[in-house]
Amino acid sequence: xxxxxxxxxxxxxxxxxxxxxxxxxxxxxxxxxxxxxxxxxxxxxxxxxxxxxxxxxxxxxxxxxxxxxxxxxxxxxxxxxxxxxxxxxxxxxxxxxxxx
Length: 100
Known about the structure:
Elements: E1 5-12, H1 18-33, E2 38-45, E3 52-59, H2 62-69, H3 72-84, E4 90-94
Antiparallel strand pairs: 1-3, 1-4, 2-3
Helix pairs in contact: 1-3
């Protein structure tokens, strides 16, 4: 049985790009949540560092994540993100050790 895949991604906006990045992520998150294989997709903003965003994603398996990466929404987001991000987006891939 394949294990669910969990990802925490962190994206920081360039100065002056905070609102644009927030809007892009809000719109994309709504689309991502409807994808087959997406178990959960949450968008968060750092309270102490506005313009720093984290996503918490849960995918059914690696195939679902791979399909997500090929969607038109992801393809369109790439060039926009390049203009908005301050540095590289980071992604941490997680496995569940205990869930109560």
